[in-house]
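Researcher: Structure for this, please.
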Amino acid sequence: MPEMGSPGIVWMARARHPEWRDAPVTISSGPGREQVDFRRSPAARYFSQILSPENAKQFPHNPPCPASILRGVREVAVGSVPVVRDFTLEKYRHLCRCLLDRGFTPVTLSGYLLQPNREPSRCVILRHDVDLFPSTALRMATLERDLGIQASYYFRYPFTFHPPTIRAVAALGHEVGYHYEVLTKTGGDATRAVRLFGEELAAFRAVCPVVTVAAHGGSRSVHDNRDLWNWCQFRDFDLLGEAYLSIPDFLYFSDTGRTWSPRHKVRDSIRNGRILPDHVSTTAELMEWVGMTDEKHLSLNAHPVRWPAGIGEEVISAGGDFLYNLVKRTIRGIRSMKSSPLETDRPGQG
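Model: Predicted structure, token format:
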């Protein structure tokens, strides 16, 4: 990889060429040079970004890279965006810009279901299951509004049912929906579940219009909340559709388990037989795949609580995901011998 220089700051580019992808970068450090391995360097993870001519002008005492090298870096960098820590709000901003740059038009679930034949040739449904801390949803909704994006937000009752936040998200132009888990709550009693669904949906509609819903995974529960529709239909509740069941042609990605791959996912998938690319795990890999794919319809589920804005939140989010992924692996082992009717409130336990 090319030599890059500037005092006190580490510069790098994630390259598409395999021989560059994991290679250390030679940087100038005062009069000498040193090798920095970006796979291990905390400085790289926390402070790296793409070198630009504007940045270089700030360092007259340490000449920047030649323009030819800069052009080469920018040609192979994924979207020429700053390299930041994964599963942070800033990384989500880069993902949104990548989707826009690659010609994907963001649409809400209800918008697509109302006019499926009028949507652009390439569209993406940005979905957000608000499992914990509703304030994180408002932060993400504001970011998307600033990018001109409309998304679909699904709140749980009563865990994230916070009317002021729900109204604020709707006021930003986003869709608000109901993140239901009534089969889990009723222990699989279908009659009680249908009645409870109507009651909780009414509570949401007292705050703002709701025409779509999305099941909460609750992977540590033995009940799949999507099975509710074996006993009722969308029209019984004046609904347009359901986030898992109503878009069978979409390729679905979710950040459940702190990865975009199917790993750590029990129920968080669309039952359409579509196979996700097995090499896509990180957000950078997803962005790279978006830049090369011929797919026309995507659905991305990003849980707002998983995309923190600060280091403290990030440590809590990453630590929680690690522990719950460990718990899920344990539960799978137990279920291989017997069922375990446990429940969870962890975000994205699909």
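Researcher: Any notable elements?
Model: The longest strand covers residues 123-130. The chain has twelve helices and eleven strands.
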